[in-house]
Every structure is written in C-alpha cells, then in structure tokens.
Amino acid sequence: MNGHHSVSAWWVALGLALGVTVSNGFARFAYGLILPAMRADLGWTYAEAGWINTANALGYIGGALLTLTLIRRIGPVRLYVIGMICTSVSLLLSGITDDFVFLTVWRITSGIAGAPVFISGGILAATLFSDPKKTALAIALYFGGGGVGMVLTGATIPTIFALHGAPVWPIVWVGLGGASVLFSFLAIWATSFLHLPDKVAQTQPAQTIPIRTLIKLTLYALIGYGLFATGYIVYVTFLVAWMVDISAGPELVSVTWVAIGLAIIVSPFAWKTILARFSNGVPLAMAIGVTAAGTLLPLLFSGPVSIILSGTLFGIGVFIAPAAITAFSRYNLPSEIQGTAVALFTTTFAIGQTIGPIAAGAVADTFNSIEKGLLAAGIVLGIGAITALGQRSGAKHLQSSQSRVVSEPPFQ
Predict the structure, then answer these.
(1) Is 160 within 8 Å of 176 (Cβ atoms)?
(2) Helix, strand, coil in percent for the chain, rounding step 5
(3) Does the global pTM surpass 0.85?
(4) Where do the domains of the chain lie?
(5) CATH match of 11-400 with 1.20.1250.20
(6) What is the rounded (10 degree) CA torsion for 12, 149, 135, 275?
(7) Core vs surface per residue 356-366: b (16+ CB within 10 A) or e
(8) How confident is the model over 71-105, as pLDDT tens digits?
(9) Which residues have a Cβ under 8 Å from the Cβ of 107 and sit 6 or more positions away?
C-alpha cells in the first residue's frame, strides 16, 4: 500500500467511481438534458440530434478497441488517468463551437476517451477485495458513480435553461468540463493508493484462449448486452426531448433526472446479493428487464408520477448491467484475460449505443414523434433480457483445459 494504510479500499472505490461520473454522467448522459436546447437553438432534426450521441458512441467503439490493445501493455491505471484528462478537455471544447462538424469531433473524442476510463476503472474496482460479496459491492459502487453525475446535472441544467433559455447551452458544456477537471484530480488521486504493475503482462503469463472461444463461451451475454446498449441509450438521449414534447416543465425534468441518479447511487445495495450469488446471466437479465420496465412505463401510463417512477426503475437497473458483466468476467474468466473480456463486452456495448440514437431519431422523424423510438427501445431491451437468461457460467469450461490464475488484490 506504499505507506497509505489509513485509506480504506472503499474510499478508493468511491474515488474511482468519479471516473464514471465524468465518462458517463457528464460526457454521455448529460447530452439528453442539453439536446432540447441545442435542437431548438441550432434547428436540428431528431436524426441530427441523435447523430451527435451516435458520434459519441462511435468514439466509444474506437476507445474500447484501443483499450483492448493497450490494457496489457500500459496497464489499467495509466489508461484510466489518460482517459480522465482527455474526457475533461473534450467537454470543455464542446462549449466553444456551434459547428455541427466540430461538435461531432468533440463528441467522438469524449467517446474515445471515456471508454478506457469506464473499462479500466471497473477492472481496478474489481481488484480491491478478494471476498466475492465485497467485490460485487465495490464493482456496483463504481458504476454507481454515473448516478452522481445525473444528480448533479439534473439538479442544475434544467433550471439554467429555464432561467436563461436555449442559447446558453455552450456555457453548460464548459461548466461540465470544469467540473470534470476537478473530479479528475480526485479520481487520479485515488489511483495512487493502488499498487498494480504498470504492465499486466510483466507479472502474468500470456493467455492462449482465442477471442473466438471467448465469444462462444459468452455469446448470450454479449448479445444481451449489445441489445441493452441499443435500448438504454435511446431513453437517456430522448427522454427529456419527449418530456418537452408533452409540455413537461423544467421542475418535472429535474426531478426525473435526479430520481434516475439517486436510483443509480442506491442500486448497488439493492443488487449486491444477486451479483455475488449468480455467476451466470441471471443478474444481467434482471438488470436489463428492470431497465426495460422503466423505459416502457411512461408510454403505457401517463402522468408525472409515472414518469418519475419510470426514471427510478431505469436508474435501479441501468448501471447494474455493466456491473453484472464485470462481475461475470471476474467470476468466470482467468484473471489475465479479464481486461480483454471486459473490452470485448464494451466494444459490443458501444456498437449497440451507436445504432440506438440515430435509429430512434430516424423513427421519430418518420412519425414526427419520439415516443415511437422510445417504444422500440423498450421492446429491444425486453428481447435483450430474455437473451441474457441463456448465458451459463463459463468457469467450468475454462478451468477444464487450463489452470486459473488468481492474483492477490492490491487492496484489502
């Protein structure tokens, strides 16, 4: 621990979670709050508005593939630090232009930078404890950092637009960038209490499991996770735009967004037993199912209560899906390929995210209503939940042909 015995591993987990606050809560989810203002001020169609988040997802694909290549070469800590810095810069730059091409570039950049933060931080959080229950909670707490971002943005951004109007959206991006810089300092400080090798390959033997075999053993989880990504991102991108269409006020927008964030924050405690108990696709299927219910609820039952409850259900499930994937990899795969596996899952996730916003935007333009896009997203999520149920534990298959390498956690 390099002399830092007084710092609890739980504090390190919370510090790492600020990475998700920045990479997801700010760089990805906050766009849903800013989209109506940008669309009104810049005269975008729904497809154009969807494209801006699809650009972020395209960057995320590149970032996931880059992480897949670099995770064993330079280690998760360095990737996490570099990603935090670059994400913060890209958010600041998003507020200095209204040019569609340049906005696309900065959204792509934030996607590229956010992927190594999301992947590496999850891997680091998974190594903090050797006890399965503590590991499951640490992983879930890490992903719960996205909820902090949603609470902060939900409590402020709708009010800013209500008071100052749509044209202030560049200032909102700059504000997110400034907050990200502050959180980056705290998150990077947390990594100083970890002592992992800079290069994983230096201390761990090479793994001979080919990607094709890995895909075969995790196929149902991969498909389910890809469908989850396709559906959930539509809700995050267009929920507020749909609320504006039905004349919801800024107070309801703010309360709903904060409800999502608070649900994300408390969700680890609701799911920790399930994540620790199952090593198959059940936790993933349950998380996707709850997310699907949250997506469909306001379309089936109208009214403010239904919308707030929708956000709450969505928040309870949305970050447990990636937590379930990280836990699945931790429980089923040899430690030296967990980084590769998580990067593979994240690449699949990023592909789904790429499809969702622009497809839903096109549907919305066709029917002149984003409600149809949200309905399609809910159906896709339901199919993803059913698919994930088919995923079996892969540990027996892997351990039958080669020994499993179990590294001591760097922090207990």
Answers:
(1) no
(2) 80, 0, 20
(3) no
(4) 11-400
(5) yes
(6) 170
(7) bbbbbbbbbbe
(8) 878 889 999 999 999 999 999 999 999 999 999 99
(9) 31, 52, 53, 55, 56, 59, 90, 94
